[in-house]
Amino acid sequence: MRTGEAPHPHPGSRSGWAVGERERGGSSFHASRRKRHGNVFKTHLLGRPVVRVTGAEHLRRLLLEEHNLVGVSWPQSVQMILGSSSLANAIGDIHQHKRKVYAQLFSHSALESYVPRIRQVVMETVREWCAREGPISVYAESRKLTFRIAVSVLLGSSPGEEKMIDLLTTFEQLTKNMFSLPLDIPGSGYRKGIQARDRLHEYFGKVIEDMLQSDAEYSTALGILIQSSKDHGMGMSMQELKEAMVELMFAACATTASACTSLVLQLLKNPEVLTKLRTDLQIKGFQSGSATPLRLSDFCHLRYLDNVIKEVLRLQPPVSGGYRVALQTFELGGWQIPKGWSVMYSIQDTHNTAPIFQQPDIFDPDRFANDLTKGKEARFHYLPFGGGVRRCLGKELAKLILKVFAIELATGSHWQLATRTLPKMLMVPVAHPSDGLKVQFSAQF
Ligand code: HEM
Fold first, then answer.
1. CA neighbor of 438 nearest in space, from 414, 415, 409
2. Could you give the 3-state DSSP secondary structure of residue 155?
């Protein structure tokens, strides 16, 4: 079936795709389509047909058959900006090999070595928010926070404040133009994206050269990559290292900033959860600005904090879904999906309709104390980090950042909404409040 053709039900299935209407965004639109047509329906995105898929049963099948039924389908601009050696552009065995190399950056010992760096940046940032005279835009400030963490954890070296601001501006230019028409002409979004990428590569190139010349112990992601390629005699080229750094920053920053913002918002809307979290942290001896170093093992007993973070990621998953292309014509939920069509698996709709979550619109961290939400059965009902061979590589790092951030916020600050009403949530490119979430922070004690 070609794009734009008439409905094409799978033999013996229901009578035709839901066709014709354009993707308008907004979950009520998709909810009404789902009610009419079920968990697999056709919609449109930028004038092209997309099959939107919801529900654990279908997601399990799609995500476990990556490379066979479906494959990645990034727009050309993403492929060009991230580069030919990026994970996003890799498939099959090459993808698997690259994931193994990258996975070293998220091992237990690697995460342990990142904790002091993350904590330092988070403490400085929250203190600075509290010292501000007026309200801050939490989403914009969280993007700065996650960028600073990414520079510290991935590269290690501190470029100095002026250079940091320059790098952040360049990175925002790259992110803004990542999804653009691939027209390489002066002033086009695509050209701006490529230029931003080149400036980042130039800076990363210098850091890599310095690191290659020094004998220092590596406690950064870049250092781990360099060391491991030396140890295994399979050196990553300069280009591969630079592309890896850009790709990891791109995957890490907006997603984690979205989750930080949703955490602030949910704790604002649910003061009883914040009180319970503060009490639990106090009982367990956590204090803002404490000089005692934090270790990964300190987070093991923070069950309530764990559940708060899980619930933030359930109710407002930063990534609302993932795009794939059908590699062959196949049947899903009684419908035939033609080869070459785009398929979108919806994380947000799956969370909203999962039978394991009662009253899904309510923010209730205690739901994760329930056995139904644990184990293999729950796996594809709850997937803020995706699933299958392309599941998020930085999941544990993201959760670690969120925990350090939540502890610092809850133990050291107080915050109030600076607008009359709560903002609406937008889902593209990641979940974020329409006005950025204007909040006044102050030091708690
Ligand atoms: C992939 C979510 C943070 C690195 C993914 C995917 C999701 C996701 C849903 C799968 C996308 C798909 O199926 O197409 C998130 C969320 C985060 C987060 C919600 C924060 C709360 C991070 C961080 C890093 C990272 C901190 C690394 C520093 C990656 C990479 C992939 C990925 C490299 C691609 C894996 C592959 O293609 O094999 N992430 N992510 N993410 N994520 Fe994350």
1. 415
2. helix
In 2-47, at which residue ranges do the beta strands (DSSP E only) sit? 40-45
pLDDT score for 212:
84
122 CA distance to ligand 1 middle (Å): 21
φ, ψ (nearest 5 deg) of residue 283: -55, -40
Q: Domain segments of the chain: what residues?
A: 1-83+320-383, 96-312+387-443
Q: What ipTM did this prediction achieve?
A: 0.99
Give me the CATH topology for the region 96-312+387-443.
Answer: Cytochrome p450 (1.10.630)
Q: Where are the alpha helices (DSSP H) in 10-107?
A: 27-37, 56-64, 76-82, 92-103
99 lines ligand 1 (CB under 6 A): yes
Residue 178's φ and ψ, nearest 5 degrees, are: -60, -40
Report whether residue 252 contacts ligand 1, using a CB cutoff of 6 Å.
yes
Measured from the Cβ of residue 418, the count of other Cβ atoms closer than 10 Å reads 15
Q: Check pocket membership of 322 for ligand 1, CB cut-off 6 A.
A: yes
Is the pTM for the entire model greater than 0.80? yes
Low-confidence ranges of the chain (pLDDT < 70): 1-27, 46, 215-218, 231-234, 445
Using DSSP's 3-state secondary structure scheme, residue 8 falls into coil
Is 384 a pocket residue for ligand 1 (Cβ < 6 Å)? yes
Q: Which CATH class is domain 1-83+320-383?
A: alpha beta
With residues binned 3-state (H G I as helix, E B as strand, rest as coil), the percentages for the chain, rounded to 5, are 55, 10, 35
Query: Which amino acid, residue 127?
Result: R
Q: Which two tokens stand for residue 72?
A: 């990645």
Find out whether 50 and 23 touch, Cβ atoms under 8 Å: yes
Tokens standing for residue 387: 């699933």
Residues 6+ apart with CB under 8 A from 29: none
Number of H helices, E strands in the chain: 14, 12
| 259 CB near ligand 1 (under 6 Å) | yes
Query: Probe ligand 1: pick from 255, 315, 325, max atoms within 8 Å of CB?
Result: 255
- Span from the CA of 403 to the centroid of ligand 1 (angstroms): 17
- Give the nearest ligand 1 atom to 99 CA: 38
Atom 2 (ligand 1): residue with closest C-alpha?
A: 385
Ligand-binding annotation for 392, yes or no, is: yes
Q: Is 309 in the pocket of ligand 1 (CB under 6 A)?
A: no
- Residue nearest (by alpha carbon) to ligand 1 atom 6: 392
pLDDT at 207: 92
Please count the other Cβ atoms lying within 10 Å of the Cβ belonging to residue 137: 16
Ligand 1 contact, 385 CB (< 6 A):
yes
Q: Residue 398: what pLDDT?
A: 98
Read off the tokens for 197. Answer: 């990428």
